[in-house]
């Protein structure tokens, strides 16, 4: 049985349950954060009681329990809102509007969660201490609210930063980076697919550089929208080219890689009316696939990233460059094709043994197409 590491498990879970994954991330973070601030308030209250020789009956678990419940409620609400807002509203909105929306929604839901905590959780668990008619009690609750509000504001910046890092590297990568997994090169077996926009020069001339950039942005966004369904990872963007990768140890079938390519074409077809209206053209990508060993290492000082090195990437890129010459949409190496289980949904054809640029040995190249009959 193949070993599935933390990163792979995280990617699979996110792919299958995207909303649950986001909600669990937010809820877990805010449960921990509110439990911590509850314990801090307990310690501060205890110090005041000791300093003024006042009776103090509280136990730390009281505030921690309340913090866990309020954090779960608050984190779940924010997670659900962020998930649907990212899909339906945030996609093409400027960062300033996103920040304003998130700040307002955070304040609203924090106020609601605080009210629920005070009048429901605290009222049910500790009714004798609610002191609804006490002016002093109201003042204490108001001060606690402002403490939590300031505390949550700064922690919101932290969690948004964490989420942005997660988006950059993909689910399940941040923790290995923090633990130093990629500080030294690690060998991995991976599949790489280089996808390059077909007729890019002609399109750029027709659309102009600004509309052409929008065209590329929309095409890449559509590719991104189906990544999780095929356990695919984006390695990098290079101009109008996108590099996709899979870890072979966790691939259930190598046909997934080819399925992904044709799923991208179907996604563009579904959005044909939009592309025709906006640009008068439909994105079409040519691609090359190869598999093999690569080394993964964290690089950079001013800008950190995880880089892959090895012949596998060079060969995949060279294979993709042959697509125009042989008028094919998808080319693969024989090495990759040998790992693919027989599948009647694909038609393959041998192109020949090619000496790729920079290589001293031939690579057997095959074309792949979807069998629609």
Give the CATH H-level superfamily of the largest domain.
Answer: Nucleotide cyclase, GGDEF domain
Compressed to H and E, one letter per element, the order equals HHHHHHEHEEHHEEHHEHEE
The CATH architecture designation of the largest domain is: 2-Layer Sandwich
Specify the CATH class of the largest domain: Alpha Beta
- The total of beta strands comes to 8
How many helices does DSSP assign? 12
Helix % is 55-70%
- State mean pLDDT (0 to 100 scale): 81
Structural class by secondary-structure content: alpha+beta
Task: Report Rg.
Answer: 27 Å
Q: Tell me what portion of residues adopts beta-strand conformation.
A: 15-25%
Report the end-to-end length measured between terminal Cα atoms.
36 Å
* Whole-number count of domains: 2
CATH topology of the largest domain: Alpha-Beta Plaits
Task: Characterize the largest beta sheet: strand count, sense, and whether it forms a barrel.
Answer: 8 strands, mixed
- The unreliable regions are none
Question: In one word, what is the shape?
Answer: elongated
Structure description:
57% of the residues lie in helices and 18% in strands. It is of the alpha+beta class. The two termini are 36 Å apart.
Task: Describe the protein's topology.
Blueprint: H1 6-16, H2 18-51, H3 60-88, H4 95-125, H5 135-169, H6 174-178, E1 186-197, H7 200-225, E2 233-238, E3 241-247, H8 255-270, H9 272-278, E4 285-299, E5 305-309, H10 311-321, H11 323-326, E6 330-333, H12 334-338, E7 346-354, E8 363-370
Parallel strand pairs: 4-6
Antiparallel strand pairs: 1-3, 1-4, 2-3, 4-5, 6-8, 7-8
